Amino acid sequence: MLQRKIIVLWGNFNKVVGIIVLNQATDYALRMSLHLSKKGSNDITDAASISEKEKIPKRFLFKIINNLTRAGIVKSVRGKNGGFMLARSPEEITLYDIIEAAEGAIAVNKCLLDPNKCNKEATAHCIVRKELDKLRNEQIHKLQSISLKNLLEDA
Q1: Position 11 confidence tier, pLDDT thresholds 50, 70, 90
Q2: Core-most of 29, 46, 72, 148, by most CB within 10 Å?
Q3: In the CATH hierarchy, which top-level class contains the domain 5-154?
């Protein structure tokens, strides 16, 4: 399992609006998706090219691509000239879609995903949970507002 974490911050230097810690597999998923979005809508790219260009070890590449395929982000094409391509247009795929496909649901605390994870059994009236839920929603909204097309335009 990949252990390195990527920390994404947004906001100004005086006030950090959100923090998300992403694992290395998610970083690879983001790079793969952006790489495929640079190709034409019908261009098929083989795994070796993605691995080489994006510096992604092949041993992780197929697992990550399977997650992206299940999420409807990447399409797999079989055959002699097979490979991978985006399943949707770059403007329809957001950072949130990719992160969720690679990591699962975003939460800054376990109780946000499952109230039974609170050993105090206080999720209904916990002020910390309420504030963490606001932060989570801000993070999700921000990630949903950034598409692959936006990234391509900023590159």
Answers
A1: very low
A2: 29
A3: mainly alpha
